[in-house]
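anyone seen this seq b4? input:
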Amino acid sequence: MDKEKKIQLKRNFGYFRGTSFLIINIIGAGIFVSPKGVLEYSCMNVGLSLCVWAICAVLSLTESLCYAEIGITFPYSGAHYYFLKRCFGPLIAFLRLWTSLFEGSGIIATQALLLAEYSIQPFFPSCLTPKLPKKCLALAMLWSVGILNSRGMREAAWLQMVSTVLKVAILGLISLSGVFMLVRGKKENVERFQNAFDGEFPDISQIIEAIFQGYFAFSGGETLTFIAGELKKPSKTIPKCIFTAIPLVTVLFLLVNISYLTVLTPREILSSDAVAITWTDRMIPQLTWIIPFAISASLYSNLLVNVLDSTRVTYIAGQQGQLPLLFNTLNIHSSPLISVLLIVALASTVIVLTNLIELINNLYFMISIWTVLTMMGILKLRYQEPNLHRPYKVFLPFTFITMAISLGLVLIPLVKSPKMHYIYVFLFLLSGLLFYIPLVYFKLKLVWFEKMTCYLQLLFNVCIPDVSDEETEVDTLKN
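predicted toks r here
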């Protein structure tokens, strides 16, 4: 069969698209809406807060390089899931899958609602946005993203590139305006930087909290492991993308924060619900209407990327036998249509029942637990399989740094504000065993579902993907 006509996930992501993908994932709503956590826990010490942002960039780079080893060693889509299964067995991998289904849906639903709110907020300047229009718009945007994903990544490539340019352009406008104000040298703009470290100095616990706030803003550097099976020459592309995207985002984040502090006082930043809008009102009031729409357009791509990420996990889980075979199918556009439908349907349910968002977002702290296990897995495989083919090896101290940060993200909330919902999250995690034991461990077959699978394959025109020559070669190297 001709290679172009094979039904399989195509390696369409080169250096530029991979870098764009990474930039989209890292630059979320936080830098536009509320980049104030670092400033708050730095006790409004301007110089220290900027140093914390720089430290967080380095920490983010170390985590990204740890995941780079996984994506390069196991160049499959959903490589992080496959890696956990190989290191710790099918049970841990299934629990990772179980939490990611709901945690991913909660994040996607939250992003869709935030995107809808930014889009319609200019029409309701003096009041809260009505819930019904916001939910309807969020659902429309979510399903449009689902349609784009079902059409394959080629269809969304132009949107991805435009969104990257738009995000960088908005942050560039804010950055250059701030630099211009500093160069002009007006006293009210410059005075906060003349004695930047003279403010109150926080204690060590506050500095650690500030680092966690900034580290969260840089999250997303591991996203290339989700699409490792769709990257061209992953052993070269992944490191190049990381060393391009993260330094670029670091420079933008630092300049944007300098610009905010040039135009606004620290207290004004802390009291603002949307710092970018407050900055625009003060600096370029003519653009007050345009900025929210530009932010919405740029955040649309985050929604697209998050749906894509979530579908790759369910796709490889179907391939590994932890979900029905139906989820390991592709349509004629080489897209995992059934996985897309599952993720979009779950996120739609969360949008309709918005009281579930807070409950599901409590699962978010589980990501840090999985990060700790992943770092342990890297160390475990280095010891147990020293001769495993690894085109790239991360500097081992980086794994300990990432593990320490992730443990802090888990333990500090538990110690500072222990709440019942952490117990509920733990019980939810264990509830995955109710599905794992009969369906995966004992391989219970549901006759009615197998019959329905045939009908659904015909209805959605999907089939089992062809095995690529690259996958066969990789499997040979790993065995």
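The mean pLDDT is 85. The two ends are 27 Å apart (CA to CA). kinda curious what u guys think
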